[in-house]
Amino acid sequence: MNRRSYNVLMIAPTPFFADYGCHVRILEEARILQKLGHRVVICAYPSGGEVPGLNIERVRDARQEDVQVGATASARYKIRCDVSLFFKSLQVVRRFKPDIIHAHLHEGALIGWLLGMFRRKPLIFDFQGSLTDEMINHRFLRRDEIFYRPMRGVEWLIDHMPQAILTNSSHAADLLTGEFGCYHGRIHVVPDCVNGDVFRPWWEWSADERAALKTQLGIPPGRRVVIYLGLLAEYQGIRHLLQAAKHLIEHTPTEVHFLIMGYPGEDYYRAVARDLGLTGHITFTGRIPYDEAPRYLAAGDVAVAPKLSATEGSGKILTYMALGLPTVAFGVPVSREYLGDLGVYAEAGDSLSLAEAMESLLSDEEKAAALGRKLREQAMRDYSWERAGERILEIYDLLCE
Q1: At what angle do helices 266-275 and 238-251 cross, to 10 degrees?
Q2: Quick check: 33 and 56 in contact, CB under 8 A?
Q3: Are 116 and 23 in contact (CB under 8 A)?
Q4: Secondary structure class of 373 (helix, strand, coil)
Q5: Axis crossing angle, helix 315-322 with helix 21-35, rounded to the nearest 10
Q6: What is the C-alpha to C-alpha distance for residues 51 and 246, in angstroms, rounded to an integer?
Q7: Phi then psi for 227, rounded to 5 degrees?
């Protein structure tokens, strides 16, 4: 099929690139669009890692800060950056002449709507979770305070601005139609995906490679390894994971070690683990670069995704699936949407249930291996970025007819 070539302006109101969630989606969408022959420019905050091969236009700020996930001290800085990002994006629009404005996060959608008004270009909003729910998760906002309803109103308004909305799950699409009254015809489900060539299955890594990494990380020989990769925060279920680890270590004969990879709460949760008596059975690595993640994941035997948020995606699950790792998750809608019948589920927020679910896989290696191989097959069949890129281009075509 012959398709026109698009100039795509992505608005990313975040310190792109960082090694977590929404940044991975932005990165992989930009890469697949370029691979399919389209030009992409990303407008982003001043800080963030450079990505070879991507054109990133950054806001200039003399008081540049390293914006940490969930850091309330960065709120004023974010507002200043968002204003600057609008003017930077306006400059890029005049020079780059985009055919499509592809905005990420609610602040990006608002900036994209303003740009679209000036330049009469269609706006796509890449929705990655409720704005107000995210603010609650990061403790910027509480449901019982005076600012909650006005912020919910702002979110409602932004959700109605774009000509099309991409969601990473059917659950998110239902949220937009059910709670925010968005027209279902403007909503398109394009799930988070995974690069199966990069995130190779663990059995393609040699036993020597896996053993060397475990030695490097201080994991004693012979232990089964439970891995977590992602942000370290309460809404990610990290406290429940540590409590489940304590129960598992105390009540099961299986020799187990927990490998916790991520940031920004590494020091805090290391102290929690120490207070729970987990020293010697847990390793915190801190931030893992995205391109190093497959090697570290290959050290695991079982993966865990204890996320509690009901509105955000859970891209980590797809990396687990691609590695062929049997996966335990709390039974929230997004986890069930990705894992389906191949997931092992715990009652949301129940540490004992989480421990029992992990034990069911650790104690039955044959069951775990079979689930892992099926998960790899499902990830490659249903969650490739090539498939997602074609779907995004179909939506571009609809808007640019």
Answers
A1: 30
A2: no
A3: no
A4: helix
A5: 60
A6: 39
A7: -115, 150
DSSP-assigned beta bridge partners for residue 165: 125, 187
Instruction: Dump pLDDT digits (tens) for 301-324.
Output: 999 999 987 667 788 999 999 999
Which residue in this structure is represented by tokens 């995906």? 193
**C-alpha span between 138 and 167 (Å, rounded):** 21
The residue count for the chain: 401
Distance CA 108, CA 356 (A): 41
Report how far residue 242's alpha carbon sits from residue 252's, in angstroms, rounded to the nearest whole number: 15
Spatial contact of 157 and 131, defined as CB atoms under 8 Å apart: no
Distance in angstroms (rounded) separating the CA atoms of residues 379 and 381: 6
**168-177 in b/e burial notation, b at 16+ Cβ within 10 A?**
bbebbbebbe
In Å, how far are 29, 69, 80, 88, 216 from 59, measured between CA atoms? 21, 19, 10, 6, 39
Tell me the C-alpha distance between 90 and 101, whole Å. Answer: 11
- The predicted model scores a pTM of 0.89
What is the Cα–Cα distance from 298 to 21, expressed in whole angstroms? 19
The DSSP-derived string for 97-139 is --SEEEEEHHHHHHHHHHHHHHHT--EEEEE-S-HHHHHHHTT
Q: Could you tell me if 164 and 125 are in contact, meaning their C-beta atoms sit under 8 angstroms apart?
A: yes
Nearest to 323 by CA among 355, 293, 280: 293
Cis peptide before 221 (omega within 30 of 0): no
pLDDT digits (tens, 9 = 90+) for 209-233: 999 999 999 999 999 999 999 999 9
Secondary element (H or E) of residue 91: helix 75-96
Cα 334 to Cα 316: distance, rounded to the nearest angstrom = 12
In whole angstroms, give the CA distance from residue 314 to residue 226.
18
CA dihedral 232, 226, 277, 292 (to 10 degrees): -50
**Residues 243, 282 contacting (CB under 8 angstroms):** no
Q: Please report where in the chains the tokens 């050290």 appear, as a residue.
A: 299
- For residues 313 and 197, what is the distance between their CA atoms, to the nearest angstrom? 22
Q: Provide mean pLDDT across the span 242-249.
A: 97
Judge contact between 124 and 399, C-beta under 8 A: yes
